[in-house]
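Field log, afternoon session.

UNIT: design team B
ACTIVITY: writing a sequence onto a fixed backbone
BACKBONE:
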């Protein structure tokens, strides 16, 4: 539960725009239940939609005016979200997010997912820098243990994943994993999933990007690995595709009233996906995104219809 003091902080940070809940923004005629998913290695449940910190979030984090990001975090928590994905490689995102979360007193309300990536060949200097990067993340976030740390873009898996295993043994991190959004690394990702005792993977997946359905998602199911999805909007690709287009009427069959919810519900309707974390720097977009984790999800027939509809645009 959120304390009264924290709620007031969130309300102040959110400003006037957050006076409306998604049910009012999208004219729903009934309350919608929040969709949660289970982490296979523990049974812990997470809200299906969270917040990423690349792209526009990262750009805003570099500015001196952080009010917009305060509003985004306030929206995330007030609407029932918790998953926040960041990385030291996303500019000021990790540092600024830690600062804001501590100001709003919501550090322990968030499921913190950050990453480790030190470029190099895995020598002693690289390992020392990797350890230093991890310690900076602990300092910036201010949560012990950190919920999830993943090796970013498959960087030096033997050494950097080895460090994360040590942290998990020491109970400084709860879950570990690896990420990639590059097709050239998919074979390597599959090998890591087969051989290593990881809890999570982070991948790209969208209604117009179905490659992960062929091997990676089935393997995650079989190996009991949780899945975070990045780029559910194809970065900007899907927005370009639907620009000026009306949402189809049949989207209402799965409680969808915006293109963002359409894209997010497609991703979340895959039973192996644990959560998706689109980035945003606008509170109203955060509220809209959280609508993607509420109410009904498309069944397999509707999923195929969604794919065909987007392909036909």
């Amino acid at each position: 539960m959120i304390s009264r003091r924290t709620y007031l902080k969130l309300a102040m940070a959110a400003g006037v725009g957050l006076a409306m809940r998604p049910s009012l923004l999208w004219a729903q005629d009934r309350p919608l239940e929040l969709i949660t998913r289970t982490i296979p290695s523990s049974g812990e449940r997470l809200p299906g939609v969270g917040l990423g910190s690349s792209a526009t979030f990262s750009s805003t984090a570099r500015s001196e005016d952080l009010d917009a990001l305060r509003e985004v975090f306030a929206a995330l928590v007030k609407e029932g979200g918790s998953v926040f994905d960041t990385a030291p490689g996303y500019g000021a995102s990790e540092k600024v997010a830690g600062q804001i979360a501590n100001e709003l007193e919501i550090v322990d309300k968030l499921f913190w997912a950050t990453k480790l990536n030190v470029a190099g060949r895995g020598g002693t200097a690289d390992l020392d820098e990797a350890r230093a990067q991890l310690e900076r993340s602990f300092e910036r976030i201010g949560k012990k243990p950190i919920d999830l740390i993943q090796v970013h873009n498959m960087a030096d898996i033997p050494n950097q994943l080895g460090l994360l295993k040590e942290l998990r043994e020491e109970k400084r991190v709860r879950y570990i994993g690896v990420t990639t959004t590059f097709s050239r690394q998919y074979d390597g990702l599959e090998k890591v999933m087969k051989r290593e005792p990881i809890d999570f993977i982070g991948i790209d997946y969208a209604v117009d990007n179905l490659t992960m359905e062929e091997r990676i998602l089935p393997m995650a199911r079989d190996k009991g690995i949780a899945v975070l999805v990045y780029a559910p909007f194809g970065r900007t690709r899907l927005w370009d595709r639907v620009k000026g287009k009306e949402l189809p009427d049949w989207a209402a069959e799965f409680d969808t009233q915006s293109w963002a919810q359409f894209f997010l519900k497609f991703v979340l309707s895959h039973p192996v996906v644990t959560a998706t974390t689109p980035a945003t720097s606008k509170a109203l977009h955060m509220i809209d995104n959280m609508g993607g984790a509420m109410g009904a999800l498309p069944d397999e027939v509707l999923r195929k219809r969604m794919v065909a509809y987007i392909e036909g645009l």
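LOG NOTE: The two ends are 44 Å apart (CA to CA).
NEXT ACTIVITY: expression trials, pending approval
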